[in-house]
Amino acid sequence: MSATRAPGAVPTAPSKEPIGPQGMKQTRSPKRLLIYVLLAAGLLIMSAPFLWMALSAFKTSSELSASPPVWVPTEWTLDNFRDLLDKLDLPLYFMNSVIVAVLVTVSNLVFCSMLGYALAKLNFVGRNKIFGLVLGALMVPGNLMLLPLFVLMSKLRLIDSYAGLVLPFAAGAFGVFLMRQFMQSIPDELLEAARMDGAGEWYIFWRIVMPLVKPALATLSIFAFLGSWNNFVWPLIATNDPDKYTLPVALATFATDPNKAGGSNGMLMAGAFLVVLPVLILFIALQRHFTQGIATAGMK
Asked: Which of 54, 236, 254, 293 would give a disulfide with 215, using CB separation of 3.0 to 4.6 Å?
């Protein structure tokens, strides 16, 4: 239906201000422009080391040592990656990192979800005290746990094994806290209706609750995978056998060995680029769920 105009009314020119997604006019104030400029500058500063690393992986040796520094390579080359593969058993270390990171991520999703569901939706004696312990664990620096963990893994004879790399991080206080906060938003009436229909707690947990917390699961997946993939200190302590090295440990050992790296910054940049690449792909794939999970958890 077309809009009607009163007789004699002077037609007005349409507004040139942009219309937002909610139909509200967005003003181009100097303050907003200043915020955009500051955000763009911050993004550029934060991403500069990553861009330098990624571009340096494709530079020739002459461009790597050029003065003044060359940002964008004029001759793109894959020689750094070929030399790295010749001198470092990259597939073995890559597979070690994948196995450890995937097992840590899956175990975090299972155990943190189960404990989060119990703390959010089940009534039992000591529930609040257990949640208090979870909050207390968040305040303990992780480095303080390295020595007790090493002694425990040594007594269990799990040093130089995948179990020794995975078990200490199979569940975390942050994951439990995140899942508990997210599951609290699920209406209790929905779960009570399922119980009245004869559904058990296991069925309710897997078939009703878990599909409703996909954003939290995606967020926890990224944090758990990223934490395990980038973990350097614990794999360095818990492995003596080079065949059990993860990528960060293998790359650091390679960089400090003059007989292998030979001071080649190109190979080191290529290795660092390959370490970052899987995490970047995972983040891009789960970005929508990750943003939703962080935003929703922040409103609890």
From this structure: 293
Encoding tokens for residue 63? 């461009």
Contact (CB, 8 A) for 112 and 179: yes
| pLDDT tens column, 248-297 | 898 888 877 766 655 578 888 888 888 888 888 887 887 777 666 666 65
Tell me how far CA of residue 214 lies from CA of 286, 288, 291, in angstroms.
11, 11, 12
List, for residues 209-256, the tens digit of each pLDDT value.
999 988 889 889 988 998 999 899 999 999 988 888 998 898 888 877
Report the sign of the C-alpha dihedral through residues 127, 107, 232, 267, in that order.
negative
3-state secondary structure 67-95: CCCCCCCCCCCCHHHHHHHHHCCHHHHHH
Distances 108 to 46, 135, 141, 152, 176 between C-alpha atoms, Å = 29, 17, 19, 20, 9
How far is 230 from 222, CA to CA, in rounded Å?
Answer: 12
CA 184/CA 143 separation, integer angstroms: 31
d(CA 139, CA 135): 7
Angstrom distance (rounded) from CA 17 to CA 23: 11
Alpha-carbon gap, residue 55 to 35, rounded angstroms: 29
CA distance 48 to 34: 21
In single-letter form, the type of residue at position 130 comes to I
Report the SS3 class of residue 19: strand
Q: What is the spatial distance between Cα 233 and Cα 210, in angstroms, rounded to a whole number?
A: 33
| pLDDT-based confidence at residue 83 (cuts at 50, 70, 90) | confident
- Helices within 122-242 (DSSP H only): 127-138, 146-155, 162-166, 173-183, 188-196, 201-203, 210-212, 214-230, 233-238
Give CA–CA dist 168/78, Å, rounded. 38
Q: Of 83, 84, 53, which is closest to residue 69 (Cα–Cα)?
A: 53
Rounded Cα distance between 54 and 278, Å, is: 14
